[in-house]
Fold each of these.
Amino acid sequence: MALTITQQDNTIILEGVLNINTLSSFKNHFRVFLNTNKEVTLDIDKVTEIDASGMNTLKEMYTNAIQSNNMFFVVGYGCKDVYEDFKYPNVA
């Protein structure tokens, strides 16, 4: 399944699968959006799957937003799991 990216005000709405195959377009869209908005909300309510590369990308984006003094929020079903992964990275 593909990833559909739409935006409404300061919110990027994702629908579909966020994985290695769909990350390139998502990263490009997010970078442009972050450069023009100080507050970014990522709505993952309609995301059906996020693989490890997708989670790593979300962590990178979160770090970039914080370093740029932007506010970054993740909302929707599964957002608690995303925030938990931000707080407790896997340690090998």
Amino acid sequence: MKRMFTVLAMVLAALSISFMACSVSSDNDDSSITANGVVNAEIPIIRTGLADGTYKVGATATALSVEATVSDGGTLTYQWYKNEVKITGATSKSYTPSTTTAGTFKYKVVVTNTNEGVTGNTTAAAESSATVTVKSTDPVVVDAATPLISKGLADGTYKVGATATALSVEATVSDGGTLTYQWYKGDEEIPGATSNSYTPSTEAAGTFTYKVVVTNTNNSVNGERTATSIQSAIVTVIDSTKTNAEKPVSITGITGTTKYKQGDTASALTIEATVTDGGNLSYQWYKNEVNITGATSASYTPDTTTAGTITYKVRVTNTNNTVDGNKTAIVDFDIQVTITAIVNAETPIISKGLADGTYTVGATATALSVEATVSDGGTLTYQWCKGEELIEGATSASYTPDTTTAGTFTYKVVVTNTNNKVNGEKTATAESSATVTVNGNEDKTGSGKIGFDFN
């Protein structure tokens, strides 16, 4: 009997030792412990992930950087990828992306933990990614400068056979181009009339329109190499022995609003002209000396789609076929209309966006932080959201996410530029977002199989 109790005691002791050997507890969610007690390398926890970024071609990018940890004593290594292609030699925890080519590129870093001391898988990996946008900076296109006419042509009235005063134009350019001139009578080019002055003929009675086209040629620019300005004048030659059509008269000239913002709805420019000789009045409008097709009434509504200062002119012609002299008389009236370009608040450029992060419940999260700039002198403000819900009071450039509850959460910051000095939209926004994962902190316990053979 004594021998039987001794054997039973030995069996119970062996059973107790077996249970102790097969019950293992781990406080690390990232360690994998199998049923037979095999321990794998811990998966790295990425404390600070990569941040998206936007740059112009040739700008210096902010380095992408990752912060990762393990608690099993393993060694961390890094490998960077661009659009899923391994970047040779990029094996540190930071990498500065190239900005030589415009486009949108995905960068990824794979963080590997190697632990030769474990009994299972000796490596485990985690990764973080970011999108880098490189915007094209197209070269500034420079066109030849438009000639500036400081002295234009003057109308003139002469008797048949009298000596006319030369028509003369004075023009300059500031871009070093070369000015040339070509004179026209009506729309017909006058051969050889290529200086800056021209003396009209008075041999025949009539009303004649002369114009000069001033051309600036600059072959050193990278855009349009020529630019032109046009000036015109009316020369009337009368036979004093005959009755001629009367010149139109306008007391007020052209009336109408002369200043607009780009895109505004303009009101009509209007001319009120009269004659007393019973002739018929007709009208033709011009924009910067160029005939406006179909604009043949006493009023014209200017276009406001293009910014600049535009000279509008209406040519009023009196036609009187009852007289025995010049049957037409012409007078030009002009007005300048200024269209001011619309300037909107500049969209913020986010030079450093938000970085994803992974944490355990109750851990202290790294603050999400955004860096943004504008060059128009506006004021930047910030508003954070969790999902699509505004976070009250979260209005600085950084925000520390909550880790009290497990789950996957999207945080977003809306950066607003407010510029009350512009004449268009006074606000513009940009945004950046990140995903924050909060893991639970449950212990993992493995169990082994225990067997007894009493044979």
Amino acid sequence: MHHHAYLWTGPKARFDREALRRPPPHQPPPPGSSPELIERYRTAAAEFPASGLPPLETAYWLVKPGSLVRGTWLEPSAAAVWLGDRLAEYAARFASEAYRAPGHRAALVTAAVERLGSGGDVSLGFYLERPAFLSLALVGCSPNRTRPELTCPSTG
């Protein structure tokens, strides 16, 4: 197994648009469905797989473009180093002072190593100033424990 890293930062209002963060249903709406339902399906089918917006379910990062992968590591500890570096990079912008504390960030990195080591994914989110939002994710691949049917993204 290996782990892919993802990062998204942007306006909190965009992050809050949950419909854009859900994969489309496997089947389109049946004939005779309302135009609104058909349009929501078309929007989700077109935007979800191509958008850098974080999915509601962490494993669905794997269906996003490979260009969104920020790094790939075989060892959980190496992936967690990337996470720790990003936490340090953004710490000054965290809206919550408690999250800025080095001890809190270190605890998050330690927990990430444990979670990745047991085959889980890691997904963290932080409110930033302005209001903005930061999403960091480390996703196991080949296969993913919660969604083994999802294939590994092409990063080449």
